[in-house]
């Protein structure tokens, strides 16, 4: 299941494993104080009005494929808490997408909008995590209509 949350001027959809598509409510962000980091990608929606769900969860070293236009958030289990670092490799192809990494609710890395017809948005960045208790990160990708992207959160070495 891939979760995409509505943002202004971007389409939103939830793509279920069955191929069905359902609307999702916009995220209200994480609870607690608003330290200016904005929405952490947390939130919930409902495919049929009867249940709720959060972001998809994956293990590190697994490729994450395009969730389409809008915002797609995925939780990645990295197997250890901070401080640590890992490599995020990505391919955003010809349409620019924004990739952001959150740890314990705080933005720790952003690629900025990457992708064009020249280098196809191929790249990688080292993500440094501060001290903390969590053993997962949330990756949020924001893309316009007709976008296509994939990325991998590599396990810390």
Automatic annotation (TrEMBL):
<feature type="region of interest" description="Disordered">
    <location>
        <begin position="25"/>
        <end position="72"/>
    </location>
</feature>
<protein>
    <recommendedName>
        <fullName>Secreted protein</fullName>
    </recommendedName>
</protein>
<keyword id="KW-0732">Signal</keyword>
<feature type="signal peptide">
    <location>
        <begin position="1"/>
        <end position="24"/>
    </location>
</feature>
<feature type="compositionally biased region" description="Gly residues">
    <location>
        <begin position="32"/>
        <end position="53"/>
    </location>
</feature>
<feature type="compositionally biased region" description="Polar residues">
    <location>
        <begin position="58"/>
        <end position="72"/>
    </location>
</feature>
